[in-house]
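Shipment paperwork, digital attachment
Item: protein structure file
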Amino acid sequence: MTSNKLIRSLLLLVLLPIYSIAQNISVKDTAPEVYIVQKGDTLWGISNMYLDKPWQWPELWRTNTYITNPHLIYPGDELRLVKNEKGETVLEVKREAAKPEIKLSPEGVKSLKAANPIPALPWSVIKPYIENEMIMTKQVYDRYPYVLGNEEGAVRYATDNLILGKAARRSKENLSIVRKQNELLDMEGNFIGLQVRYLAKAKLVDTELNNQALIRILEANLEVKRGDKIIPAVSAEPNEVMLVAAQNQTGFIIDDLEQHNLLGKFNVVVLDLGSDQVSAGTVMGIYSQGPRIVDGKQPKYEGESDTIRSAFSQGDEISQPALKVGEVLVFKSFDTASYALITKSAKVIKRGMIVAKP
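Attachment content:
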């Protein structure tokens, strides 16, 4: 049985008693009857204010025809808990007509400024990872052109330096310079991708060269070196986040981005689930599974020692149930892996813990 099949069977044992009950929305007793959305609020924070299961947020709006997208709420919105005709608790919003704001560009052009909804996640926490971190396959990384050097013979480059790089097949004017940082391995030791670090914002200067490109570094977060890769500009804006609970997806926490062995709330972890399985806004439970037990006259944990293991080689191996210890919220997904924010933890979170439906 593969590891994925194994954790699916284990999780069913743990979660069936929960999911055999109808999925009614449970509004917290402490939820405010009226709340005015404030600047600095997040959708996740407000959802937690009202619900034990914040991913059920859209269900609170199910009879509200005024709101077409419950994930878009704005500072100044007045949220009201009411009962509908069926006696169900639902959320309504009172929103005043937005007053147009005038925005003046550096060129002196006036335009209307649209109101911005509150962010889904604490931007200050995830901003460094959206801006500075990404995951690529080795094939994609190797395909990008790289930095060659500059006219001064320097080996390190910073903001405003002019550098020469290999030309891309399809030139883009706005560029980013990145560097391989780490190899990602799944729980069986298989390579699944490269963690890539953003170094600098850059711009193409000259496209008339045959096999090279002249590039100006506009803003460097870290020093650029020869061999660093040149890729099309990376957007620093998060994708639209739609809160949704994972269903059949199962995976593992395989790494973290802060080089900590012990993790907790608001730390960022790497999941071995790619964009074909999860997307920004997917909520997953974190599950901890104890070591297997070798049954016998004196039960022992598997791997206590070779001597003990051989003595009980005829005993049955018992897999312990996976118990829920926290939750994660995916905020960025790539082809082979994804980044997720730990939003709740009842114990220390470690590599190897299982993620599945919350």
